[in-house]
User: Fold this.
Amino acid sequence: MWAAHITLESLKVSGENYLAKVHYRMQDHFGLDDDDVLNPVYREFRIFRLWFALQRWKKYGYRPFITEINTTVEISGRRDE
Assistant:
């Protein structure tokens, strides 16, 4: 996970019970960085070295693509849990 933004949209407390609505926005990229290509396991595979070069060589410039997930969930329970 490259980035996450978590927002508490609402919170209702009634006695010992609560109900919260939480929004999650998460982003990740599908690309290689220096740590990936220098990893001893990955660097054994030629495909990772090629992918790294394609991603960074200005002539090609294949940039990593971004995956974004947005979801809102309700969480409920008791204060003493």
The chain has one domain: 3-78. Helices lie at 34-38, 46-56. The chain has a mean pLDDT of 87.
